[in-house]
Amino acid sequence: MPSQGTITTKTTSQITTIEFHHPKGNSLPGKLLQELAEAITEAGENEESRVVVLRSKGDGAFCAGASFDELLAVSDFDEGKKFFMGFAHVQNAMRTCPKFIIARVHGKTVGGGIGIAAAADYSIAHSNASIKLSELALGIGPFVVGPAIGRKIGTSAFATLSIDARNWHDAGWAESKGLYNKVVDSIEELDEAVDKLAGELTSSNPEAMRELKQIMWQSTGHWDSTLEQRAEISGRLVMSKFTRKYIEEFRKK
Description:
2-enoyl-CoA Hydratase, Chain A, domain 1, six-stranded mixed sheet, alpha/beta, two-stranded parallel sheet, single chain
C-alpha cells in the first residue's frame, strides 16, 4: 500500500536506481526496510547493472529515520529487535553489494537515514541536506547505524552527532567530516553530479570495482553479529518508559 511506503527499482544504461518513499518524511518502517535490503541485494546480482544509485522521492526530507508509529507499536523485546534488524539488513546489503552505491541525498536526514548515507560508497548531497542523529534524545542510541557512521566519519565526529542529539549539523559540516563526498547548491547540480559519476563508473572495469570495494570494506566481516547485538540493545531500550513517553509526546506536536 502506498501509505506504507514504496520501493521502485529501474535499470537503464547499466545504472540501477533504487528509490524509496514514505509519505511521512521518507521514514522507514520495517516492511520498507526489508524491501529496500532485498532491492539492494538484487541490484548487486543484476548482470545488466554496473553501479547502483540510491535515492528517496520528493523534495522534502531525504529520510526521517525510523517510523515512530511502528516504534510505538512495538510490544516486546523480540518485536523491537526485529524492527532494528531492518536497518542492520539494509546496511549489510549495502556493504556486501559487489557494486558501488552512490547515495543521492537531497534534503534533511535523521538517524537511520544517516546510516544509509554512511553505508553508501559515495554520497552526493544538496547543501540543504542537514543531519541529526537524534536517537539519544529518543531514549535509545545510534547503536545499529553506529558502525557505518563511525567508519565513515571517525569516532570524534560520531560522538559529536550522538551526544549533541537535539541539534542539526549542516551539509558543510557533514562534508568536512567525510559523510558526504560532495555537496552542491541545487537539485539540478545534484542530478548532474550523480548522473555524471554513475555514467563514468559504467565504463570502469567491473572486476576492478568489485575488488576495490572489498578493500574499502575490509575488516567489516563481523558486522552480521555486531549489528544483531546492537539491534538487541535498541530493542530493549525502545521498551523503556522514557522512550515510550518521548514518542507519544512527539506525535502530539
